[in-house]
Amino acid sequence: MFLDIANIHNYDREVAPFLKNGVIIDSTVLWEIICGLISTRITKKPHVEYEKILRFLDLIKINNKWEKFYITPHILTEVSHHLRNKYCKYENYKKIVEEIMPILQIFGEHHASKDDFVNRIDFKNPIIEAGDISIFIVTDRFFEDDKKIAIFSSDSGLNKKYEDNN
């Protein structure tokens, strides 16, 4: 189920239950946050997507509460790879890493085991997106325990899988 900010009538009933257990953050959104932090804090340039994310987080009352977010080692690997590839040639790469790592350290962590990961591969249509698969594994664990969890993603495939799921 998608969160429709414009039509929230009761935050405590319609939003808060999904945030109580935290928010799994997808690599696409995490990457925008990292690029936004670098742009606004280090290169002093505006970053439109980052500002949109911060406004959204403020609307759902978790702005700058990074400890409410969870990542998987797979998501961390994807984002670290992007960070290295995009910024390693920058003169201030060390400063960039020093700025980003404390925020990543605050995030909570959920694991997806190798066996769970391998068992999720659809061999008829093998798409291996490590971050997405790890989110599927973690999210399904919440469903099995009859708990709610929010996923913050801009990935159409990930969103499609959970759009009708409370």
Q: Note the total helix count.
A: 9
Sheet of most strands: 4 strands, parallel
Distance between the termini: 5 Å
User: How do the SSEs run, as a string of H and E?
Assistant: HHEHHEHHEHHEH
Class of secondary structure makeup: alpha/beta
Q: Strand share of the residues? A: 5-15%
**Uncertain residue ranges:** none
Overall geometry: globular
Biggest sheet strand order reads: 3-2-1-4
Question: pLDDT average, as an integer?
Answer: 84
Count of DSSP E strands?
Answer: 4
Helix-residue proportion: 55-70%
Mind telling me the C-alpha Rg?
Answer: 17 Å
Summarize the structure in words.
By secondary structure, the chain is an alpha/beta fold. It is built from nine helices and four strands. The protein has helices spanning 11-14, 16-19, 27-42, 48-59, 73-87, 93-106, 114-119, 130-144, 156-162; strands at residues 23-25, 69-71, 108-109, 150-152. The chain has a four-stranded parallel β-sheet. Helix 3 (27-42) packs across helix 4 (48-59) and helix 3 (27-42) packs across helix 5. 21% of the residues are buried.
